[in-house]
Design a protein that fits this description.
The chain is of the alpha+beta class and about 80 residues long. The chain has one helix and five strands; from the N terminus they run αβββββ.
Length: about 80
């Protein structure tokens, strides 16, 4: 389930960067030592890497085809 949420987040980030443009996005997700990781790349070379820990904290880094980098951090309050 962690991998699924990471992929959805990556799709949302790509969609926000390119509204109205249909893109084919390839993603690979895996879980290791309680950390979920997803890496996604679209046809234009935009990339997103997202990591989620067991508590739901998430860091996502997106780099577009021009080399611009965007970071999103989601922390779960306890």
């Amino acid at each position: 389930m962690v991998g699924g949420s990471l992929i959805v987040s990556s799709f949302a980030l790509f969609g926000g960067a390119m509204p109205g443009i249909a893109q084919e996005v390839e993603c690979e997700a895996y879980e290791e030592d309680g950390m979920g990781v997803a890496v996604c790349v679209d046809d234009d070379g935009n990339t997103a890497v997202s990591v989620t820990d067991e508590e739901g904290n998430q860091v996502t880094i997106v780099e577009d085809e021009e080399g611009n980098e965007y970071t999103e951090i989601i922390e779960v309050e306890q």
